[in-house]
Structures are given as structure tokens and as C-alpha cells.
Amino acid sequence: MIQWKDENVIKVVTGIRRCGKSTLLIQYQAWLKSNGITDDQIVSVNFEELEYEELQDYRKLYLYLKERLCEGRKTYIFMDEIQKVPYFEKVVDSLYVKPDVDIYVTGSNAYMLSGDLATLLTGRYVEIRMLPFSFKEFLEVTGMDKGEGLTEYMRVGGLPYVAVMNRTQEKVETYLEGIYNTVIVNDIEERQIRKETEPEKRKVTDVLLLKTIARYLAAVVGNPVSIRSITNYLSSNGRKVSPNTINDYVEALTEAFIFYPAERFDVTGKRILKTNRKFYIVDLGLRNYMLPHSRYDLGFSFENLVYFELLRRGYRVMIGKAENTEVDFVAEKQGTYTYFQVTADMTAKETFEREMRPLTNIRDNYEKVILTADRFTVGNYDGIQVKYLPDWLIEE
User: Which of 214, 19, 203, 217 has the alpha carbon at shortest distance from 111?
Assistant: First the structure.
């Protein structure tokens, strides 16, 4: 946020509900005030607060903000959960062209960055993506050590309030249930408001179907998924649903930042493949709520942690295909690649060889890393680094 201050672009902060977007705005406004910005230069509207409900009419919102611009001085405008305002992009665009205005908005649905807004603001906004706490942040807030902390982090997830609350199982589940239902019902319902002006878009109306697909994606984290595989799963459970409908529902779940897709990447040809993406869930606590008492493959849960840690570190993250083997992650930043394998334990000889094989098949000289939760195989094997996962999660 600080590095984009006063740049002539709209700052759009996105992320799942309760990941800390509103708190970020409050902290940033406090920073502005501590750096010489006066109270009247900051105009802030949170559309989740009842006193601002009538400003969900975009015309009233525009007049409200326009009246508060500081002539001859910079005005910092903050609009929190902007997706609640139909046609908000008209307000943003009109303010953007005025002198001395710096605009910040937050939203809990990526749909607001598609369609009209993207067309209107092409090249004029930056997206600042927020995620729940990283493992390192979770340790800082809870004061736990990394061994005990990793078990707890995988149980309850990294949503900020969970980290500071008294985490009984019942309270954590109740809190996560509230967030999950709000995202599924409210955020995806707000997405419908925006679709009303785009009749070619099909609406998501069957909440039970949406939750069924969400549970399926949560259950198969780390496995290749296609629209066909979801269709077959639903058919086997007695539900006949068209692939187009399933595609719309999966899109709704990714736009609400519950699931993040990872494309497959041909390591040899350095190109994206069109088939069988994988999906990762934004928070393992939510996964545990959605699938209570399930027996998970620990390796896939670790894979989920690593995927989001790589996103936090600024990588574009893909699933690798190297000849006839799969690489868990190809992480790309500024044209440089790093290859990652993730496993719970490599002490068994066959597991060690299986995890090494995809990386030894890659002929280029980019960095190759295996992350494991066992300490015994840590080391360097002909250029392939094996690292202890909890140490890697908290390294600078």
C-alpha cells in the first residue's frame, strides 16, 4: 500500500472475507496521519456498516465523495467492500479523472475485476491480493513454537481472528461456519447483482449444489480436477448437472477466493497445458470445517500450505509436467523458475526415489527443491536441495 501511495492508479485490495482487508485500510490510514496527512484529507466508507447503506446507490455515493474532496490538496478515498454497490465502477472512474485524488477500494469477490470494471479501468488499477496469515505470521501472533504451531495452523487455519481467539474446537468451527456461509451465500449472491447487466452470464442459484461442489474440491485438494470429473462425481451421487453449470459454479468459488486454481505447465516446452488443473483451498481451517472427521493425505495438506506460501512470496505457481512425471510446483518470478516437490516423509527408499525422479528428469539449471516434514533426509543431492518444511515456511 505504502509503495503505491500517490501513484496515478486505483489500488484494489482483494481477498476472502475476514482475511484483514478492512484492518489493512485502518492501519494504512493511521500511517498516512502519522506522515502529515490531515483527517479531512481521508474519506472512508465501509459498505458493511449500516450508516452507509444509502450510499449503495452509486449516484448518492458519488455526490457524498465529491463534496468531501479537498481543493488544492490530495484527498485519500477508501471504499471498503465496494462490490455491494451496483455500478460502482462509474463512481471510481469519475473520481479517478479528477486531480489530487488517491483511490483505494477493497472487495471480497474477484468478479468485480472482470466485465465492466476491467474494461473501464484497463491499465489504471493495481490489484493488491491479501491472504490469511502465513505460518510465520501465525507464529508471531500466537507466540507458539514452529512444531506445536504447525499442527495448530493446519487444524484451525490462518484467518486473523482465529489466531487471536480462545481456540476451542467448538468456537473455531462456529466462527468458520459463519465465514463459509457468508461467502457462499452473500458474496456469491452479490456477484449476481453484477450479472444482471450481463444476461449472457448464467446465475448461481442452487446453494446446495454450490456447497456440494465446494466439498468435492476441498476433498480432492492436490489432485487433478476437470469439469468432467466433477460431472461424473455428481452423476454417481444421483445429480444430473450440465458441464456449463458446473463450470459457472467452480468459477463462482474461485472468484470468492475460497479456491485458487493452478494450471499445468509443460516444463520442457515452457507452455501452459489446457487440461486438469488443480485447486487449492485458501485456508485449511475452512477445509477442516467443510470435511469434519475426514482422514486427509498429509502430503496434500502440506502441498496446500506451500502453494499459498509461494503466492505470498510473489511467484506465479503452476503444476509441472516433466516428460512422464509430475512436478508438484513450478514457481516462476521474472522469467526465472524454481521447481518444488512436497512430501510428508522421505525416509522410505521408494518414497525418496519417487520424489527425486521428476526433478532429475528436468534438464535445465533452475533451482530444484524438495520440502519434507521429516528432518532426516535434509541435505543436497546432486544439486537437488531437500529442506525441512517448517524451516522453509518461516525463512526470510
Answer: 203
Alpha-carbon 385 to chain mean position: 28
Neighbour order of strands in the sheet with 10-14: 42-46, 75-80, 101-107, 10-14, 125-129
CA dihedral 318, 126, 94, 24 (to 10 degrees): 110
Question: What angle in degrees, to the nearest 10, is found between the helix axes of 88-96 and 58-66?
Answer: 30
Tens of pLDDT along the chain (396 residues)? 999 999 999 999 999 999 999 999 999 999 999 999 999 999 999 999 999 999 999 999 999 999 999 999 999 999 999 988 988 989 999 999 999 999 999 998 887 776 656 677 777 899 999 999 999 999 999 999 999 999 999 999 999 999 999 999 999 999 999 999 999 887 776 666 555 555 445 578 899 999 999 999 999 999 999 999 999 999 999 999 999 999 999 999 999 999 999 999 999 888 998 888 999 999 999 999 999 877 778 889 999 999 999 999 999 999 999 888 999 999 999 999 999 999 999 999 999 999 999 999 998 999 999 999 999 999 999 999 999 999 999 998
Q: Using alpha carbons only, how large is the chain's radius of gyration in Å? A: 23
- Quick one: how far is CA 152 from the chain centroid? 20
Residue 354 CA to its chain's centroid (Å): 30
Query: Rounded to 5 degrees, what are φ and ψ at 49?
Result: -95, 135
- Phi then psi dihedrals of residue 8, to 5 deg: -80, 55
Which amino acid belongs to residue 167?
A: R
| Distance between CA atoms of residues 391 and 376, nearest Å | 14
pTM (global) more than 0.90: yes
Q: Is 56 left (phi over 0), alpha (psi -120 to 50) or beta?
A: alpha
In order of 12, 48, 134, 211, 282, the CA distances from 130 in angstroms are 10, 18, 11, 24, 11
Cell 522469467, residue located: 335
